[in-house]
Amino acid sequence: MTSKIYVQFLWHFHQPYYSVPNQTSNKLPWVRLHSIKSYYDMGRMLERFPQVRCVVNFSGCLLQQLREYIEEGKRDSWWDLTEKPARELNEAEKYHLLRNFFSIDWDTCVERFPRYKELLEKRGEDDDAIDPGAFSVQELRDLQVLFNLAWFGFSAREERVVVQALIDKGRGYTESEKHAVLEQQIEVMQLVAPLYSKLHHRGQIELSITPMYHPILPLIIDSDVAAVATPNRPRPRRFQAPDDADFHVDEARSLARDFLGVDASGMWPAEGSISPQAVATFAEHDVAWIASDEEVLQKSIGERWSRNWDLYHPWHLESAPETQIFFRDRGLSDLIGFVYAKNDADEAVADFVDRVRHIGQERREDLSPPVISVILDGENPWEHYPQDGESFLSELYRALTEADDIETVTPTQYLEEVGPGPALETLHSGSWIEANYRIWIGEDQTNRAWNLLGRTREHLVERSEDESLSEGRLHQAWEALHIAEGSDWFWWYGDDFTSRNDADFDRLFRDQLRHVYAALRDEPPADLDVPLIGDTAAEVEFKPPQGLIQPSIDGNNDFFYEWSGAGVYTNRGGRGSMFENTRFVDELRIGFDLGFLYLMVKPGADFHERRKELELRFKITGPDGGVRSISVEFGERVEAVVESARHGKCPVERAAYVDCLELAAPFAHLELHTGDEFSIHLSVIEQSMEVSRHPIERALVLQVPDETFELRNWIV
Fold first, then answer.
1. pLDDT of residue 664
2. 525 half-sphere exposure, CB direction, 13 A CA radius
3. Does residue 579 have a pLDDT over 60?
């Protein structure tokens, strides 16, 4: 039995990057909402127990987004929807509100608010049965407020008078009270980074960092490393980008220095993913310690593995002695992450302490004091605990503070007091899940995503040699590519995990790759428009053309019957989690006669004032796979140009804008002939970047008409 047992907690904070470079709004709100709950709570709880030592780990992309909220005023689409007066919400916005503003644990969080529970019961559990018309303006406003109130953690609720007063009020909120909630959120967010910097500099915690955009670093270095653990699984075309791995390590540490004032000596690799090549990369960048999962260590040692002797001290790879590797106790980590939430806090803590002491009792006295690494997500478990985990965490920290035989420690403190661990001759390549990488590579969807990523990177490398490209554009292109290398997009592909946001993450991944091409002023490949997850074509609200039309092209939306036979696409921006907070397009009408394609765009609320900064670009793909485009710019007058392979650029002679855009383009200039099937979608371009697309996913499919079209589509 050993006389002292060291326990080191590593709480990992991470959110993927929720926008493309240079966009002014995040697509999803989770950085903001986790900041006011778990990020703030965990720091304030540590202040209550100054003798507790631990590691708090931030991913680089989470730090970047925190900085953007605080220093640049960046917000998110759900913030915008909260800000909008409830009386002014349209049907799509109401649907989005009712679908997504219950995104919190119903049992532990919604139950605390009687009005919130009442609204949930009225809405029901089936998204398809949501009826926006059944809710009054006051009910919708209360939902806007209660969702944002429910996300405040125990610390903000206890400390902030305004928050507690609004919780006590319960219902009947005003617009000014709603804005007060949002102001309180930003005030709490502003406290997060200084709080952890203070805890680090006073020696209570050690701040560590995850490589910049949370990539599976071994796969970025060489995707064929996946074959080490799963040799029989299919693999994508080989992806090798060791320079990108260097970027992710360097950029994250640089950001920690700039934003937190901390020179982080340790790193938690994304998903605990390591390989000999990845460890060498960390060592080359003077990273003092990293961590992974116990099964990776077990597979590295092989038949000689003895859990009690081997797990509870650091190791280093023989070829990289500069970097120590700690391995997490999977059982203890998962108990906190998944089990203890369902149990009484006192009983859960007693069980944890007993298990720690049992490890110490089994340890031989002639060995170094054990260090038990408890490493887990520091943000998501707590909403499933009663009181957001306050009772459990306070009892846990109190018990560890009072225990004479247990000492909490950070990796750097342990290495200073006890020293480095022994050498590993070989290191298995794997992650904290099954000691392999199968979650992120090896299934059809993940492999297709890797192939898209690899092709885009090859294009970017080739185009980087173009001296005419500005540094700013190249920087944007590389930033988007590095974001696309993050693990989160690949997590949701395949059959292992699913969420209501799967399609949103798929879209964000492909948006990053499209942004690479846009930054280079190149046309993105058509397959980047095709979802990798499922088939979302049914979500597009499009009524196909029913008759031939010959509208007047005057830009006036004043004669309905001119366009009555046209196809109608309606922008329903509220059907996903990523609501369209800036609205440029409300409706697109597509019609034709035997010689012309007619297009009419009914602008959204934000289009008219900003139209001179925007370009509308219709992308048309013919039966030969070739792309034709119609580009429309709005200066003193409308200028529209058709571009095709055979005819080059031809001006569109009939185009006009007053309160809508109308234009007529000859099928001949589009190189389309009678009976040809073609697809079309509309992009809104700002400063050469695509800022919105309609439809969001698959293009609309039509056919060039012949003389029998109206007979085949005759309606009364």
1. 96
2. 13
3. no
